[in-house]
Write a structure and sequence with these properties.
Elements (H helix, E strand, L loop, with lengths): L12 E3 L9 E2 L2 H14 L5 E7 L2 E8 L2 E7 L5 E3 L2 H4 L17 E9 L1 H13 L8 H9 L4 H5 L3 E8 L10 H10 L9 E3 L2 H13 L8 E8 L5 H4 L9 E5 L5 E12 L5 E12 L2 E7 L3 H7 L2 E2 L2 E7 L3 E7 L9 E2 L13 E2 L8 E2 L5 H12 L14
The structure holds 2-(butylsulfanyl)adenosine.
The site of 2-(butylsulfanyl)adenosine has 15 residues, from strand 3, strand 8 and strand 11.
């Protein structure tokens, strides 16, 4: 019932009413204090609410007669793409609302890809010889742009609703009450938010959220501070960029410096050769990391990662260790450029670079590395689930 039959030719354009705005960003507590001072000059008797800033793709969902009739991307804020056929495949989005919900309702939020889903999708992309996605946001955006809803249905997408649209939300006194109603009507909403009276409480909430940032199903790149009482929205108004009743606060991306000690080449189940950076072990976002995939030779060349380089290490999608960039200033001249092997490093057989792929493959079906990976794949949890058979045994 969620996946319609045929691939579509392209996306129709949708005009947003009102426009889907952006948020003014702050990067320091000082800037937030300035915002607080501004707000206190304009209004009194208000409370703040702090929420996660979800790093995904903004989306508008429109319901008529309590049925989902249109889903649209933000686009340039005025006009976006009608991606209804794709968004219908997201199982957590209600297609029909309960009788308590208004007949006509527009809600807005963020579509994201779960961490786990992102890791799996990238494995699939690499096995198919395609370039993996850099992060869950790109993977979500790429998925929504697919023309075949059947393909979209295989992508692990989800949504968080955090804002009112143009209709059906007029009666709520506070943002908190509105989000609570969205939850009752079946929409996924943020599992965490804090009500704050003072800017000091806001700072404490922002710090608390930063510590929790890796525990959510979605990636967060900051906090959003909102005035809770909706009657103040029209008083505070908006700039061309965004509303004056909200501010984003961006967290610094987590990264650590380390050294590429060598680059090894791994042979996968389907014969794909993957260069892997062997790193001086460092701890990042709650784990110790000593290896990071470099995906393929194109990627190594693009980032110009050399053996001996100092690099910034990040976690793509908060889970996959990845080289963010090379710290070129730290080069001594002793670094060595990596060459992709011309024979399989395990069986010594021929490798092929198919014209339409980024990958290089070992084409020997009896290559011991491939055999082992195939056996592991056969025994793994999603396949025959043979508990006593795995990489170590
Ligand atoms: S409220 C007028 N709440 O961040 C816009 N936006 O960088 C009010 N975002 O365009 C939006 N998490 O797509 C709001 N909890 C949250 C959010 C959120 C992520 C997005 C939104 C916005 C972008 C600005």
């Amino acid at each position: 019932q969620r996946v319609s039959g045929e691939p579509i030719a392209g996306f129709a354009q949708v005009r947003h009413n009102p426009p889907m705005q952006s948020l003014d960003k702050t990067h320091s507590k000082g800037e937030l204090s300035d915002f607080d001072a501004f707000v206190r000059k304009e209004i009194e008797g208000f409370t703040y609410r702090v929420e996660p800033k979800v790093d995904g793709v903004s989306m508008s969902l429109l319901y008529e007669n309590r049925r989902l009739v249109r889903a649209a991307t933000r686009g340039n804020g005025i006009v976006g793409d009608d991606v209804t056929v794709n968004v219908r495949t997201i199982r957590s989005i209600p297609l029909v609302l309960p009788p308590e919900a208004p007949e006509a309702l527009e809600v807005r939020g963020e579509v994201y890809m779960t961490r786990e889903g992102f890791v799996k999708l990238n494995e699939r992309e690499e096995e198919a010889g395609r370039e993996p996605f850099a992060n869950p946001r790109n993977a979500a955006a790429g998925s929504l742009k697919q023309l075949d809803p059947k393909e979209v249905a295989t992508r692990p997408l989800d949504v968080v609703i955090y804002n009112a649209g143009g209709v059906g939300c007029e009666s709520f006194a506070t943002h908190g009450e509105m989000i609570e109603a969205f939850r009752r009507w079946g929409f996924p909403v943020t599992p965490w938010s804090r009500e704050c009276r003072t800017i000091g409480e806001v700072f404490a909430a922002i710090d608390e959220l930063e510590k929790l940032r890796h525990t959510f199903r979605f990636e967060i790149d900051g906090a959003v501070l909102k005035i809770d009482e909706r009657r103040f929205y029209s008083v505070l108004g908006a700039t061309a960029h965004g509303p004056r009743w909200a501010r984003a606060y961006k967290y610094a991306p987590e990264r650590v410096e380390t050294v590429v000690e060598s680059i090894t080449v791994q042979v996968g189940r389907t014969g794909i050769l993957t260069p892997v950076a062997e790193l001086k072990p460092v701890s990042l976002a709650a784990s110790v990391i000593s290896r990071a995939t470099l995906h393929n030779a194109d990627q190594v060349a693009r980032q110009d990662v050399r053996i001996g380089d100092h690099i910034w290490l990040v976690k793509a999608g908060d889970v996959i260790p990845a080289v963010d960039s090379v710290i070129v200033e730290k080069r001594t001249g002793d670094e060595r450029v990596f060459q992709m092997p011309t024979a399989c490093p395990v069986c010594g057989g021929k490798v092929e670079h198919l014209a339409d792929e980024v990958a290089v493959r070992c084409v020997n079906p009896l290559c011991p590395a491939q055999l082992q990976r195939r056996l592991e794949h056969f025994a793994e949890r999603n396949a025959l689930d043979i508990k006593a058979l795995g990489g170590k045994i």
